[in-house]
Amino acid sequence: MEKTYKAEIIGVGTELLLGQIANTNAQWISDKLADIGLSVYYHQVVGDNLARVERCFDEAKGRSDIVFVTGGLGPTEDDLTREAFASLTGELLELNEDVLTTIHHYFSKNNRQVTANNRKQAMVFPDATIIDNHIGTAPGMIVSYEQTMFIFMPGVPREMKQMMTEFVIPYLKDQLSLEEVISSRMLRFIGIGEAQLETKIQSIVSDQVNPTVAPLASDGEVAVRITAKANTADQANQMIEQKQQEVLAIVGSYYYGYDDVSIETAVLNLLIEKKQTLAAAESLTGGLFADALVSLSGASQVFQGSVVSYSEHVKQAVLNIPRELLVTNGTVSKACAKAMAEQVAKTMRADIAISFTGVAGPNALEGQPPGTVYISIYQANSVIITEKYHFYGDRNYVRKRSVKKGLELLYYLLKNNKL
């Protein structure tokens, strides 16, 4: 039976803890390790402190078979990865002349002088397997300590990726005889909450071994991640496909796509398929809906444009909404939303139009509390739907949720042939 290895990823650098740099290295490494069947059990981030880095390494050693460490290999005093590992293991660093020569060549090629502290990057552990850095100066190292393999790489993403791709992954596949792969698929659902979806598929979630099934929530939608481990990618994908069919047999009416497909992509594809053009009139969303669509390739085939009618004056002067309607009903009203959708459809000669009006906050408007939103959809000389919602959160969250809800409405109306 093939051994199951536990992998862990540690990012070293105070800048990661301060949020100045996102730890994208860990995400990328996890994704690549899944391709060769290595399961990542832990992610850690530690600042540039010798004692804390050493404790972090000691903790990882006690629970993981392979530890990937990024960062802390630079030439400055706060680059402490080597020193922390030396303190933990009692191993002495020594100058590697071959690495030092490579550093000299790198600086010479770039018309720069090697400084004294760059020699620090040529200090390696005597029994380490050196990983050449073809982009920068700091080499990587692979060192074993008490049956745990430590793989040290620079924190600069392009340097780390070069080492992983060219050396580390082939090395691991050879040394560990890795034959399995891990594949995942993210099924995407909208119009159903996480708790409701999990309740519906509870029997599948409870009875899982391989593939595993996990519901995940995000703003305005839900995802179900299916992960399979198999000898080949084809086998894993077949297992995922079978489990996907089980999930969709229960909640398929809420499903709109998988992996990188977004709800705006799903709406755009339906508009193209049905050869329908779309326009928008946006008040509180202020152009966010238009941005969501025009960010996608192919939007020009169907999207006519959007009128950002943020003020009452623009609603009257551009969209030709009667002043009497606004005085009687207010701008935050079902009547205003209907009129906005109808007028922008006529102005832009669109088959379908959607409008957004409401109160993003933080203060109330026209007696309506923050988070009050009206969305209306118009087609073929009639208003198809106008809905009132109340979203809780700050003003930008309310605006984003309004766009997501508008896309949801469009998707189901198009999918069910009601547009």
Give a quick set of tags describing it:
single chain, 419 residues, alpha/beta, Molybdenum Cofactor Biosythetic Enzyme, Chain A, Alpha-Beta Plaits, Maf protein, six-stranded mixed beta sheet, five-stranded mixed beta sheet, 15 helices, 40% helix
Structural overview:
- With 419 residues, this protein is an alpha/beta fold.
- The protein has 3 domains: 6-176, MoaB/Mog-like domain (Molybdenum Cofactor Biosythetic Enzyme, Chain A, 3-Layer(aba) Sandwich); 181-258, Alpha-Beta Plaits; 263-415, CinA-like (Maf protein, Alpha-Beta Complex), CATH 3.90.950.
- It contains 15 helices and 17 strands.
- The protein has helices at residues 14-17, 24-35, 50-61, 81-89, 97-109, 157-176, 194-200, 202-206, 233-251, 263-274, 288-294, 312-317, 323-329, 334-348, 395-415; strands at 6-12, 39-46, 66-70, 94-95, 123-124, 129-131, 140-145, 148-153, 181-190, 212-218, 221-230, 255-258, 278-282, 303-308, 352-358, 372-379, 382-390.
- Strands 2-1-3-8-7-6 form a 6-stranded mixed beta sheet, with helices on both faces. It has a 5-stranded mixed beta sheet with strand order 14-13-15-16-17, sandwiched between helices.
- Helix 2 (24-35) packs parallel to helix 6.
- The longest helix is centred in the last third of the chain and has 21 residues, at 395-415.
- The model has no long low-confidence stretch (mean pLDDT 94).
- Residues 8-174 form the MoaB/Mog domain.
